[in-house]
Amino acid sequence: MNDLSAPRPNNLDAFWMPYTDNKHFKANPRMLYRAEGMSYFTPEGREVLDGTAGLWCCNAGHGRREITEAIQKQAALMDFAPTFNMGHPIAFEAAARVAEMTPDGMDRVFFTNSGSESADTALKIALAYHKARGQSSRVRLIGRERGYHGVGFGGMSVGGIGANRKQFSALLPYVDHLPHTHQPAKNAFTRGQPEHGAELADVLESLVALHGAETIAAVMVEPVAGSTGVLVPPKGYLERLRAICDKHGILLIYDEVITGFGRLGTNFGAERLGVVPDIMTMAKGLTNAAVPMGAVAVREGVYDAIVNGMPGGIELFHGYTYSGHPLASAAAIATLELHRSEDLPGRARAIEPYWQEAVHSLRGLPNVIDTRDIGLIGAVELSPREGKPTERALAIFRRCFDTGVLVRVTGDIVALSPPLIIEKHHVDRLINTLGDAITAEAA
Q: What residues form the membrane-spanning segments (predicted)?
């Protein structure tokens, strides 16, 4: 037996870190110890302003007492209960709270544990929907270049970030991709939605002509592509995508893992951008990241086709041990109550003009080739160093951290997504620190 009281070495070897240069990190560790409000604190007590809401997820800020107490109370009452042919009240309450926030008609909620699981769940629901309607030939899934839908085989296959795919050759069959919408030659330094690029949605018509509409089950896109470096949809793009999907009986899936729960100044990106999907994935801000949880919301017609279209028994052979976990459900309820009582989307809308000016104030600094924004998201794109892609952005990331600000980099893009409780003096500190780091890494 393991002796849990025996001392164990406290080193960095055992943890294989995700999406990390493990060799570099373990030689030069950057450690966080606690968090409160807008900030992290290192083990030495140094404050680090959070410019990324953790990983796009702590929208209500850190250390929220209301969420902590809800988790503690539920843990003391019941730690776990299965949701396979069983139920517990708090999971149903959490689903109802989510359904209050989703667009009208998207009132059925399936719980997962992460954005990756939500993506794969949404794709499986799309396939099950068409099969329930007698259209089993609809097995093809359409994603988009530079799209990110987590790291499950479904989401990774439909996703379109090359680095996420190249190590893993065995991906799903029957997948194709739309082109991404990033057009720096036409849209550089755009504030909000770009003017150019709506016609890129028409490539879906070409894919229909190539494969046949009767073979395509769904199109999956992020309303705003976040992890690939903040690609904001051109005006009219999502409207055209929606129209083509409707024309050919194709389901439209939004990955709202990043854009959900106030990030764009509305409950979901569908509301801000004015185009509602058939299926919507979410995670991250759902519980303010206090307990892992994801969800998939679907239109009533999708639910009815699968559930009411079955004569009896289990309608969807899919689920997770921790679907609707009691602690996660408690965290979700407390988080969504904070969103309502403090009007976090409204706070994001109120500070968005100041945020936009701040992000675009970095234009003109050395090597800055684009700045872009929407809601409380910003991006600064940099020209790479000769023969050393990503090196400049990583150096800026490390310099910012050493100066007390956390930013995120993807390729040669610095992405910003602060908690929605950010105030103007936080914006100033974040942008000034980033600007100083960009200037310092000019060579």
A: none
Contact 228, 253 (CB under 8 A): no
Burial (CB < 10 A; 0-12, 13-18, 19+), residue 431, is: buried
- Interatomic CA distance for residues 341 and 338, integer angstroms: 5
Mark whether 269 and 373 lie in a shared domain: no
- How big is the chain, counted in residues? 443
- At 5 the pLDDT is 65
Count of CB atoms within 10 A of residue 323's CB?
21
Rounded to whole angstroms, the Cα distance separating 288 from 290 reads: 5
- 48 lies in the same domain as 192: no
Sequence-separated (6 or more) residues with CB below 8 Å from residue 224:
230, 231, 232, 233, 258, 259, 264, 269, 374, 375, 377
Report yes or no on 327 lying in a domain. yes
Strands (DSSP E) along 81-211, which ranges? 108-112, 140-144, 175-178
Q: What is the pLDDT of residue 1?
A: 44
Q: Is the pTM of this model over 0.90?
A: yes
Last-in-domain residue among 313, 341, 369: 341
Residues 89 and 26 in one domain: no
Range of the domain at 270: 68-341
Contact status, residue 35 vs residue 52, Cβ threshold 8 Å: no
Which pLDDT score, from 0 to 100, does residue 123 have? 98
Indicate whether 9 belongs to any domain.
no
Q: What is the pLDDT of residues 345-383, one digit of tens each?
A: 999 999 999 999 999 999 999 999 999 999 999 999 999
352 shares its domain with 249 = no
pLDDT at 169: 86
